[in-house]
Amino acid sequence: MFPQRLDSPLAYDIAKAMMDGFNRHYRLFRTESARAKHRFETADWHGQQRAQRERIEFYDLRVKEATTRLEKEFKAGEQPMDVWQQVKLHYIGLLVDHHQPELAETFFNSVTTKILHRTHFHNDFIFVRPAVSTEYIENDEPGALPTYRSYYPTRETLGETVERIITNFQLQRAFDDLPRDAGYVVQAMSARLVQVKLRANFQIQVLSSLFFRNKGAYVVGKIINGFNEVPFALPILHNKAGALIIDACLFGEDDMQGLFSFARAYFMVDMEIPSAYVQFLRSLMPRKPRNELYNALGLAKQGKTLFYRDFLYHTKHSSDKFRIAPGIKGMVMLVFDLPSFPYVFKVIKDWYPPPKDTTREQIKGKYLLVKQHDRVGRMADTLEYSEVAFARDRFEDELIEEIRKFAPSQLEISDRDGDGQEEVIIKHLYIERRMIPLNIYLQEAFDAGRTSEADSAAAGNARDQIEAAVIEYGNAIKDLVAANIFPGDMLWKNFGVTRNGKVVFYDYDEIEYITDCNFRQVPKARNEEDEMSGEVWYKVGPHDVFPETFGPFLLGNDAVRDVFMKHHADLLEASFWQQHKERIQAGYVHDVFPYERNKRFVRKVAQAVA
């Protein structure tokens, strides 16, 4: 029931204490994000990676702090429900002029669910829908930065404007040659504006904070001319001499989607009003879900909140059923999906057949490693949930039986809410973007090639699809190697193809750090008996890897083998892996670019980036 009066002397104090906890969280989050600028200026790449990992833990630490305080000072868990209803109303009042109201609502939900110790919560006690609008929020305090800056160049002053855009970020490190790089940017922009009439509203809008990730800083903005808007991003890197350079000019929604991919590490951005940044980014990438943009900005809990709201909305407006996901079933994870929804749901099985030797906690540790690590565009991000309830009538019986067989500890079917509706409750699951499994993608190309042999054009398209996928597969592994990740199980089924043709790894139960692996050549046979033996006759340690043995498992198809050996034969050599391991151990941080190398200005400068 909605409270008629706010008569609890504790309700406001609880709400205020909870808001204090959130404000502390966001202050620390923002401070750490702002420090990324100094780490970039000083080329502290290891510090940048460490900060990106540690910042992920900030939220849970602050929730724990707030929960402890509320229990200690107010015995919050013992308060009756009418007090909690009043707490929520007071909290809404505190959100009215807040600059991060949507994040504060999510924080309230996190703390409340910890304190009330319930699996499901009546809507009166948490924010199922947002209570406060995030539109048109501005920071009117003196000296506050606007969300974005607007520049009004002419064709003649475009170069000067680009230089001013860069210098306004006040990077404390010299550029190698900023006028030269601005000239390259102008050339790239002019190619978009040639034979185009510049309208009265011609302008460039640029977000006021740089986006930092790994060894790069990114200027993000858009060109507006008449009714057209063209998104762009300028990556700023260090060259070999340690000076700054603008490395490329990325244009269009596809380039921006690649930059903000769900398979990449989170950015560090100093934002006073995150919802305004998300609104601006949505204008650049209208197909990008808001939850993925919040994730990309490092606000993963808000991303989870928005994802779940989107999911509930989708299930309300759809009628298809959850099913066992198509493809080869995994030994460790049970995977199901809803055909109309572009995500898959993964549950850790209760037992694993040989040769798998692992535990539930070890698998959860691997997924946490991926969450905290640089995913270099090659490992899918995951959303992790506990105690998720689904309507029972939306599940195929075959799927229920599959869960009962392989993960009974993770399944409950009951009317836990007491509303007469039976629910399927999954104790713990991961949710990932759906991709086409690479083995299925290749098989479709093989089939298309066979059925279109009389059509040379169609057969050629099938061959091109196979070649592009195999090259991408090898590139994905090499990017993972550069990020100190050994995939473990490199079978085609463990990789997926995104809608942009990017190959991404998504099976994490066997990943290891490259630096923890021992890459060896298979010893020469001692005699003919060894050579003919079907068993391994040499000693193998727990972390030994023999790259030359990958071939028989991966290259059974001649078309695949030909492409692989042409472009990625080095992946079958122990020396390739060992050399990368030694460089990583020596402290080298590899460059992994979130854009194609042919977009780089370095080809004009003939100057490699360190």
Distance between the termini: 63 Å
Characterize the largest beta sheet: strand count, sense, and whether it forms a barrel. Answer: 7 strands, antiparallel
How many separate helices?
A: 21
Shape: globular
Helix content: 40-55%
Number of domains: 4
> Given the helix and strand composition, which structural class is it?
alpha+beta
Oligomer: single chain
% residues in beta strands:
5-15%
Report the radius of gyration as a whole number of Å: 27 Å
Give the rounded overall mean pLDDT. 92
Number of strands: 20
Low-confidence stretches: none
Structure, briefly:
Its EC number is 2.7.11.5, 3.1.3.-. Helices cover 42% and strands 15% of the residues.
Key features?
610 residues, 4 domains, six-stranded antiparallel sheet, 15% strand
Question: Can you describe what's shown?
Answer:
The chain is 42% helix and 15% strand. It has 21 helices and 20 strands. The strands form 5 sheets. Strands 1, 2, 3, 4, 5, 6 and 7 form a 7-stranded antiparallel sheet that branches. Strands 8, 9, 10, 11, 12 and 13 form a 6-stranded antiparallel sheet that branches. A 3-stranded antiparallel sheet has the order 14-16-17. β5 and β6 form a beta hairpin. α1 runs antiparallel to α4 (58-74) and α4 crosses α6. The model has no long low-confidence stretch (mean pLDDT 92). InterPro entries: AceK_kinase, AceK_regulatory, Isocitrate_DH_AceK.
